[in-house]
């Protein structure tokens, strides 16, 4: 899972692959819980690209996507949001969301 900023964001979300973006902050405890789960899934789902973006360092982007709670994870394909979730979810629920987004 690679950390990106606003400059890289538009490039990565325009992929034909499913792109998972974790909007997080270093001080956020639920973000710290979620991060290792997403890291694990990024190794399993080779056909999905995983990124994280710090909302404190990229406030305009967070505002543009309506990020009001963190962690917020959005799924993109070809520049469009195709799914996602808010909050630290258990691994099995994250897998369900990923599988649903892969079908789109």
Radius of gyration: 12 Å
Strand arrangement across the biggest beta sheet:
1-3-2-4-5
Per the CATH scheme, the topology name is Glutaredoxin
Order of helices and strands: EHEHEHEEH
Catalogue the unreliable spans. none
The outline comes out as: globular
CATH top-level class: Alpha Beta
The biggest beta sheet is recorded as: 5 strands, mixed
CATH architecture: 3-Layer(aba) Sandwich
For CATH, the homologous superfamily is named as Glutaredoxin
What's a quick, concise take on this entry?
This protein has helices spanning 6-13, 29-44, 59-64, 91-102; strands at 2-3, 18-24, 48-54, 72-77, 80-86. With 104 residues, it is of the alpha/beta class. Helix 2 (29-44) links the parallel strand 2 and strand 3.
Structure, described:
- The protein has 104 residues and is α/β, with parallel strands linked by helices.
- The protein has 4 helices and 5 strands, in the order βαβαβαββα.
- Strands 1-3-2-4-5 form a 5-stranded mixed sheet, with helices on both faces.
Secondary structure layout plus pairing:
Layout: E1 2-3, H1 6-13, E2 18-24, H2 29-44, E3 48-54, H3 59-64, E4 72-77, E5 80-86, H4 91-102
Parallel strand pairs: 1-3, 2-3
Antiparallel strand pairs: 2-4, 4-5
Task: Jot down its keywords.
104 residues, five-stranded mixed sheet, 40% helix
């Amino acid at each position: 899972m690679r950390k990106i900023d606003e400059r890289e964001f538009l490039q990565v979300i325009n992929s034909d692959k499913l792109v998972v973006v974790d909007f997080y902050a270093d001080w956020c405890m639920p973000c710290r819980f979620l991060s290792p789960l997403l890291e694990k899934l990024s190794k399993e789902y080779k056909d999905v690209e995983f990124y994280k973006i710090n909302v404190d360092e990229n406030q305009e982007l967070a505002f543009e996507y309506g990020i009001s709670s963190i962690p917020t994870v959005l799924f993109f394909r070809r520049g469009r949001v195709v799914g996602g979730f808010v909050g630290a979810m258990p691994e099995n629920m994250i897998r369900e969301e990923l599988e649903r987004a892969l079908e789109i």
